[in-house]
Amino acid sequence: MFAKAATLLRISFPRPARLWLRIGAVAPADCSVDVCTFEPGDTLLLYTDGVAEARDRSDNFYPLAERAAQWTGTGPDELLQHIRRDLLAHVGGRLADDAALIALHRTPTVHRGRPRIFHLGRGGPDADGEPPPQA
Question: Which domains, from first to last, does the chain contain?
Answer without folding.
Answer: 6-105 (3.60.40.10)
